[in-house]
Design a protein that fits this description.
The complex is a heterodimer of chains A (390) and B (529). By secondary structure, chain A is of the alpha/beta class. Helices cover 28% and strands 22% of the residues of chain A. Chain A is globular and about 70 Å long. With 529 residues, chain B is an all-alpha fold. Chain B has a domain of 187 residues. Chain B starts with a helix and ends in a 7-residue tail after the last helix. The chains are: A alpha/beta (390), B mainly alpha (529). At the A-B interface, helix 3, helix 4 and helix 7 of A face helix 14 and helix 15 of B.
C-alpha cells in the first residue's frame, strides 16, 4: 500500500485534496445576545489516505467545521456566513454548502460518513444493529435485502465484531461501549465512504478500548484508501494517528503543520501551552503547567520568525498590536501565515504582513509514504492489537 | 414473560380485595350504613311494630345486622370463584340457592330467662330422601322453603316483639338508655337482671309509688309472654330450617361449578347478587350497560388518538411556528372547558329544536321508535329513512364530542414533548449523517422512540374513560356504565356498587398490565424476565 502510494507520488501526478475548507464561517443565534461566531475563516484540506487531526478545546469550532461539511449544523440557530467546503468526489470540485437537501443526502453516509463521540447514545435503542446498518446500505446502494445483509456482515466482520451474523439481530443495549463504537464504524464504512469524519471517536471509551478503536481506524484507512478527519482534544491520539495537524482556537486555525513539524517545533504559544500542560512521566511536579501560564507570558508571543518586524501570533485575549493594518471584511484582523514552508500560524494582520497572501494550508504529507518516518509512527504497543478481542 | 404475566395476574387478586374492602368500609361508615336503601324501603308507610318487624326481616334477609367485616367476607365468598364448603345449587330459574342460614339466638334468653331447655336443638329432624324426578324435587324444595320462610318470619316478628317488651320492661325499672339512638335494644343495660315470675317488685320501683309498680308488673308479664312466644316460634322455625337444610343436602337441584376437593373446595362462577334498587341480577344490568359505554369509548378514544398524535408530531416538527402555538392554545382551551357546561350548551344550542339548531338528539341512545327501524338506512318509496344504525350514531354525536374534546391537550402535548426530546438525541444525528431523509427520520427514529409516553397515557385514559363517562352519560341520559354507577351510588345499591367497583378496578389493573406489555414490545430494553 505504501509502495503504491509512493509510486503515484513519484509519477508526478499532482495529488488533489478530496476536501478543502475555504474561509468557512458559521455563527449561531444567541437569543437576545450577539450572535456566536463558532467558526470564523477556517481553512484546511484533506487528501485521500491522509489523516487530518483537528485539535482544540471544547467550543473551538472543530465539530462545527466537520458538521458543516455534511450540512448537519442545525439551522436555525446556525447560519453559514461565508466560505465554501469544496468536495472532489468525482473529478470536479463541488461546494457542499451549496447543495440542496436531496443532493446532500446522496453524499451523507455515502461519500462522507461520520462517527460520533457518544457510542452509548448514537445508536437508536429500539432497532437492531442490523436494521441500522442496513438502513445506510439500502439508502445508498442499489442492492437487495439479502445482498445488503451480506455487506453488513462483512462490514461488521471488518471492524472485528465476532459472530456478526447473529449480532445483527442484537440491540444496541446488548453491546458494550467499545463494541457500539465498532458498530458505528461498521455502519459508517458499510458504503465505502471516501472521507470519514471521526468526531472524538474515543473520548467516551476507556484507554485500552481507545487504543483498539484507533488501531482499527488506522487499519481500515489503509485498506480502503480513505481520508480521515480526526477531531480530538487528545494530543496522544494526534501523535499516534495524524499525518497533518490543525490546531484551532476560538473558531480560527492557530497552527497548521504536519505532525512531526508541529510536535518538534510548535510556534503558536497556544500550541506550546498545550504541549506544556501534558504531564510528563518521570518528572515530579506539584502543579501541572496550565495553558494560560504559557499564553499569559508576553515573551512567548515574540518567538515567531519575523517577530522583529512585528509579526505576532493571533490571540483573541490580547489587544491587537499597535501597528494593525486590518484588511477589509470579517476576520480581517487575522491572517493564517505560512511562516516556514509547510507550517502555518495564525497571526495578527499587522503592518508587517498587511500585503502578505499565503497559500491556504495544504499538505499532502502522509507518514505512510515517508520511508524515513514510517517506522517512527508511534504504535499502540501496550495493548493487544487483535481487534477481535474486545 | 409468561412467569411475569402470571405473577402480575395473581397480584391483582390482593389488590382487588383491598380496593373492594375500602369501598365496602366507606359504604359501611357513611350515614345509614350498608343497608340504608333496604332499611328505607322497609320503613315506608308503616309504623310501630309492623315497620320494626319488616326492618328486622330485611336485615335478616340481607345479613345487615352482622358487623361490616363479616358482611364483607360473606360478599367476598360469594364473588370468589373459589368456593369453600358444599357447592351452591341453581334452580331452574337460574337463582343460586344456598343452604339456609342458622337461626339467630333469642335475645338474652339465658341471662334473663335462666334456662334454654325449652329450645329445640338443630339437627333433630330426620334426613330427607328425594325422588328422581326433578319437578317433584323442585316442588319439595319450594314447599319446604315456603314453610321455613313463614316460620322464620314468625320468629323474627316474635324477636322484634320480645325486644320491644324488654325495652319497656327496662324503662319501667327506671333504667336510662335502654334503646340506643337507632331505636335498637341496648342489651348491656339489662345485663345482670333476672325475670322471676310473680316475683317481688324491685325496691327502687316500689319507692316510686303504686303506678310504677303496676307498670312494672305489666311489663314483666309482657316480657314473659314474649319469651314464650319467641321460644315457640323458634322451635317451629328450627324444625322447618332443619327440614329445608335436609332437603337442600339431598341436592334437589344441579350443583354449580366444579368440585376440587368434594365438600371442601370447589370452583364456581362468581355470584354478584341482585341489585336491590332494580331487583335484577347485577350481572344482567352490567351486561346491558357495558356495551353502551364500550361503544362510546370505541368511538371516542380512536378519535382522540387519531387527531392528537398527528397534530403532536406536526407541532414538534414545526416547533415555534404558528401551527404549534395555535394548536397548543386551542387544545388547552378545550381542555379547560368543563364537560358539564359544554354538554349543557350543546344540548341547548345544537340539539334543542326550539331554541337551538335541532341538528342532533337531546337524550338517549335511540329514538323511541327506533326499535321498529331497519338496521341500515333505506329509501323506501323515495323517502330517506335513517335506520337503526344511523339513528344510534346521530344520538352519539354530541356525547362523543363531549368525551373527546378535552382529551386532545394531554396526548398531543405529551407527544410533542417526547418528540422534541428525541429530536436532539444523538441517534437522530446519526440517522441524518447516514443520509436518511427528514420525514423518515421523524417517523422511523423520533416517533418510534416517543411511543412510551403515548402508551402510558393509554393506560390512564382507557379505564378513566370507561368510568369517567359518568358525567356525559348523565347529561345525555345514556343508559351506560356511568349512569349505572351513579344510580348505584345514589340509591346505595350495595351489590351493584361493589360489582361496578370490582369491574372498574379490574379494568384499571388490566390496562396497566397491558401498558407494561406494550412497553416491552415498544422498547427492546424493557424485559420482564
Amino acid at each position: 500500500m505504501a509502495e503504491a502510494a509512493a509510486k503515484s507520488a513519484t509519477n508526478g501526478e499532482p495529488a488533489k485534496p478530496i476536501m478543502r475548507v475555504d474561509d468557512l464561517a458559521v455563527s449561531f443565534d444567541n437569543g437576545r445576545g450577539p450572535r456566536i461566531q463558532a467558526v470564523d475563516g477556517v481553512r484546511m484540506s484533506v487528501y485521500p489516505r491522509q489523516t487530518l487531526a483537528v485539535v482544540g478545546e471544547s467550543g473551538c469550532g472543530k465539530s462545527v467545521t466537520a458538521m458543516s461539511s455534511m450540512q448537519l449544523v442545525p439551522m436555525p440557530p446556525g447560519h453559514f456566513d461565508r466560505g465554501r467546503i469544496l468536495w472532489r468526489g468525482s473529478g470536479t470540485e463541488i461546494d457542499l454548502l451549496s447543495l440542496n437537501d436531496r443532493q446532500m443526502r446522496d453524499i451523507r453516509g455515502n461519500d462522507i460518513a461520520m462517527i460520533f463521540q457518544e457510542p452509548m447514545t448514537s445508536l437508536n435503542p429500539v432497532y437492531t444493529i442490523g436494521d441500522q446498518i442496513l438502513e445506510a446500505i439500502l439508502l445508498h446502494q442499489n442492492v437487495t435485502a439479502s445482498e445488503a445483509t451480506e455487506i453488513a456482515v462483512e462490514s461488521m466482520n471488518d471492524v472485528g465484531i465476532p459472530d456478526p451474523k447473529a449480532r445483527l439481530r442484537a440491540y444496541p443495549h446488548q453491546f458494550s461501549g467499545g463494541m457500539r463504537q465498532r458498530v458505528m464504524i461498521a455502519m459508517a464504512l458499510a458504503c465505502q465512504p471516501k472521507l470519514l469524519l471521526a468526531d472524538e471517536p474515543t473520548t467516551a471509551l476507556d484507554v485500552t478500548i481507545q487504543a483498539q478503536i484507533l488501531e482499527l481506524l488506522r487499519e481500515l484507512q489503509q485498506t480502503r484508501s480513505m481520508a480521515v478527519m480526526l477531531i480530538t482534544h487528545n494530543l496522544g491520539v494526534v501523535a499516534e494517528n495524524a499525518d497533518v495537524v490543525c490546531v484551532m482556537y476560538a473558531g480560527r486555525v492557530v497552527e497548521y503543520a504536519n505532525v512531526f513539524e508541529l510536535f518538534s517545533n510548535p510556534m503558536h504559544p497556544y500550541t506550546r501551552g498545550l504541549f506544556a500542560s501534558i504531564p510528563k512521566m518521570l518528572t515530579r511536579r506539584d502543579r501541572l503547567v496550565t495553558i494560560t501560564e504559557v499564553t499569559d507570558d508576553p515573551k512567548q508571543f515574540e518567538k515567531l520568525p519575523g517577530a522583529s518586524e512585528g509579526v505576532r501570533p493571533w490571540w483573541p485575549w490580547h489587544t491587537p498590536p499597535k501597528d494593525m493594518a486590518a484588511a477589509d471584511g470579517p476576520a480581517g484582523d487575522y491572517y493564517l501565515q505560512e511562516v516556514s514552508p509547510g507550517h502555518w500560524v495564525g497571526v495578527w494582520r499587522t503592518a508587517a504582513v498587511h500585503d502578505h497572501e499565503s497559500r491556504a494550508p495544504d499538505l499532502t504529507y502522509r507518514i505512510a509514504d515517508d520511508p524515513a518516518k514510517v517506522s517512527l509512527r508511534p504504535k499502540a504497543q501496550h495493548v493487544e492489537t487483535t481487534v477481535t478481542g474486545a | 414473560m409468561a412467569a411475569y404475566l402470571i405473577r402480575r395476574l395473581l397480584l391483582m387478586i390482593p389488590t382487588l380485595i383491598g380496593i373492594t374492602f375500602l369501598v365496602f368500609m366507606l359504604i359501611a361508615l357513611s350515614p345509614g350504613g350498608i343497608g340504608a336503601a333496604q332499611r328505607f324501603a322497609g320503613g315506608s308507610g308503616q309504623s310501630g311494630v309492623d315497620a320494626r318487624a319488616q326492618q328486622a326481616y330485611l336485615e335478616d334477609r340481607y345479613g345487615l345486622d352482622d358487623p361490616a367485616v363479616v358482611q364483607y367476607v360473606r360478599w367476598l365468598g360469594r364473588i370468589s370463584p373459589l368456593k369453600f364448603g358444599t357447592r351452591d345449587q341453581r334452580d331452574p330459574a337460574g337463582t343460586i340457592i344456598r343452604s339456609p342460614k342458622p337461626l339467630k339466638p333469642i335475645a338474652m334468653l339465658g341471662e334473663l330467662w335462666g334456662t334454654e331447655d325449652d329450645l329445640t336443638a338443630p339437627g333433630e329432624v330426620e334426613p330427607e330422601t328425594l325422588s328422581d324426578d326433578s319437578a317433584v324435587n323442585n316442588a319439595t324444595y319450594r314447599k319446604a322453603s315456603g314453610a321455613y320462610l313463614l316460620a322464620r318470619l314468625d320468629y323474627i316478628a316474635a324477636q322484634t316483639n320480645l325486644r320491644l317488651a324488654l325495652s319497656t320492661w327496662g324503662t319501667a325499672q327506671g333504667i336510662r338508655g335502654v334503646l340506643n339512638n337507632k331505636s335498637k335494644l341496648n342489651e348491656s343495660k339489662l345485663r345482670g337482671l333476672h325475670i322471676v315470675e310473680d316475683g317481688p317488685v324491685p325496691q327502687a320501683v316500689q319507692d316510686k309509688g303504686l303506678d310504677a309498680a303496676s307498670t312494672y308488673r305489666d311489663a314483666q308479664e309482657a316480657v314473659i309472654q314474649a319469651y314464650e312466644r319467641a321460644i315457640t316460634s323458634y322451635n317451629t322455625a328450627q324444625v322447618q330450617r332443619d327440614h329445608l337444610a335436609n332437603v337442600y343436602a339431598a341436592k334437589p337441584y344441579p350443583q354449580v361449578g366444579w368440585s376440587i376437593i368434594p365438600g371442601v373446595l370447589s370452583l364456581g362462577p362468581p355470584d354478584f347478587g341482585t341489585s336491590s334498587s332494580r331487583s335484577q341480577p347485577v350481572l344482567a344490568l352490567i351486561k346491558t350497560a357495558l356495551p353502551v359505554t364500550v361503544l362510546l369509548n370505541l368511538i371516542a378514544i380512536p378519535i382522540i388518538y387519531l387527531i392528537a398524535i398527528p397534530s403532536g408530531i406536526l407541532a414538534a416538527t414545526r416547533a415555534g411556528t404558528w401551527f404549534d402555538v395555535a394548536s397548543g392554545a386551542m387544545y388547552v382551551a378545550l381542555w379547560s372547558i368543563p364537560v358539564v357546561w359544554a354538554g349543557t350548551l350543546m344540548i341547548g344550542f345544537v340539539a334543542n329544536e326550539r331554541s337551538g339548531l335541532g341538528w342532533f338528539y337531546v337524550a338517549g341512545l335511540n329514538s323511541p321508535e327506533a326499535d321498529g327501524f331497519a338496521y341500515l338506512p333505506s329509501w323506501p318509496n323515495g323517502d330517506f329513512h335513517r335506520g337503526f344504525m344511523l339513528d344510534t350514531l346521530l344520538h352519539l354525536c354530541l356525547p362523543v364530542s363531549c368525551l373527546v374534546y378535552a382529551g386532545f391537550a394531554v396526548l398531543s402535548k405529551q407527544t410533542r414533548a417526547a418528540m422534541l426530546d428525541n429530536f436532539s438525541a444523538d441517534y437522530v444525528r446519526t440517522a441524518k449523517a447516514k443520509g436518511v431523509a427528514d420525514r423518515v427520520v421523524v417517523m422511523r427514529h423520533v416517533f418510534r422512540n416517543s411511543l412510551l409516553p403515548v402508551i402510558t397515557i393509554f393506560a390512564a385514559v382507557f379505564p378513566a374513560m370507561l368510568a369517567g363517562s359518568v358525567v356525559v352519560e348523565k347529561i345525555f341520559t345514556i343508559p351506560g356504565m356511568g349512569k349505572l354507577v351513579l344510580d348505584a351510588i345514589n340509591l346505595r345499591d350495595r351489590e351493584l356498587l361493589l360489582a361496578n367497583t370490582l369491574m372498574i378496578a379490574g379494568v384499571n389493573l388490566l390496562a396497566l398490565l397491558l401498558a407494561d406489555i406494550l412497553y416491552a414490545l415498544a422498547d427492546p430494553r424493557v424485559t420482564y424476565d
